[in-house]
Design goal:
With 317 residues, this protein is an alpha/beta fold. The chain has 11 helices and 13 strands. Strands 3, 4, 5, 6, 7, 10, 11, 12 and 13 form a 9-stranded mixed beta sheet that branches. It has a two-stranded antiparallel ribbon with strand order 1-2. The protein has a two-stranded parallel ribbon with strand order 8-9. Strand 3, helix 5 and strand 4 form a beta-alpha-beta unit.
Length: 317
């Protein structure tokens, strides 16, 4: 099958409009429409439904997108970097990812890095910002995605922000269309992070601004423990939607937006001055992390907002 047609299909799916996709791809709209039509004829299924506002992907189209997006991206990366000296680099890299982002980011990021650095061994640590910063300072982690920290030993560049929502069990009345006021949220039986950074910091600041006291039943830095308590109906929590996508899709967890005030979590790429990796290597790691994150956000799989499209380089952070 022509991979160009798959690329065109994915772009139309992302844009939700053939005319907008044609502009992005730099080709004529009739030509793009014809390529999509030929792909549908090859597969024997309709991939899009035409609407007044553009196109809407069908169930068959969604299955094709899920099955081809990541492999096609890996193929593009492989072709792009097959002749690069970085592809011949042999060494290890130790990554740090926050637990709340591991479910959405780990697989595409590792896939992208394996394609760019096929001879590099990857080691991935998952934990809170406090744990990952300590690991970086000890030399156990090279590059990490963390919350902002007031530590001048860490080079940090903001990458994304994502809103926190109220998470509750499957039998709660939480609804994505009905906001929950922060004052109402703090009266719920809560499970909160033990760590004072990230979500814990956002909760503390919101409590100070609204002059309320957060009452909680349990404090833990384990996302798995938090989600288990939520699913069992024992607690509510403020989490990014990306941390519970599967549970929400399976109706094991329900959610609603937070308001008065809204809460956000910021994540960025970080390393320390002691990082002992070649400059070109670290820059490419940062570029790959930023690129995979950008694609996840643009595709809607990570409900977040990208803060910068500039490549990350610890030597200039």
């Amino acid at each position: 099958m022509d991979t160009h047609r798959l690329k065109y299909f994915l772009r139309v799916a992302e844009e939700g409009s053939i005319s907008q996709a044609a502009k992005v791809l730099g080709i004529a709209q009739p030509a793009l429409s014809r390529q999509v039509q030929l792909l549908e004829e090859d597969l024997g299924v309709a991939l899009f439904r035409r609407t007044r506002r553009g196109v809407e992907i069908t169930e068959a189209g969604e299955r094709l997108r899920s099955a081809t997006a990541a492999p096609l991206r890996q193929l593009e990366l492989a072709v792009q970097h097959v002749g690069s000296p970085l592809a011949r680099l042999e060494r290890g890299i130790r990554l740090g990812i926050p637990e709340s982002a591991a479910g959405v980011l780990a697989a595409p990021l590792i896939g992208g890095l394996q394609t760019v650095f096929p001879r590099v061994n990857l080691s991935v640590a998952v934990g809170s910002t406090d744990v990952l910063v300590e690991a970086m300072l000890k030399g156990a982690v090279d590059v990490a995605l963390i919350n902002p920290v007031p530590d001048d030993r860490v080079f940090y560049r903001g990458l994304l922000s994502e809103e926190l929502v109220v998470m509750g069990g499957p039998h709660t009345d939480l609804d994505p269309s009905r906001e929950v006021a922060f004052a109402e949220f703090v009266e719920m039986p809560l499970v909160i992070p033990r760590s004072p950074t990230g979500i814990g910091h956002a909760l503390e600041n919101a409590a100070l601004r609204t002059k309320v006291t957060i009452q909680y039943h349990t404090a833990t830095d384990s996302l798995q423990v938090t989600k288990s308590l939520i699913e069992a109906g024992l607690a509510y929590a403020a989490l990014p939607l990306s941390a519970c996508v599967r549970e929400v899709d399976d109706d094991r967890i329900r959610y609603a937006p937070l308001s008065g005030p809204a809460l956000t979590q910021h994540l960025g790429v970080a390393a320390t001055a002691q990082l002992d990796l070649p400059r070109e290597f670290t820059a490419k790691v940062g570029e790959t992390l930023r690129g995979e994150t950008s694609r996840l956000i643009e595709s809607g799989r990570w409900p977040a907002r990208l803060l910068t499209r500039e490549p990350w380089d610890p030597n200039t952070a």
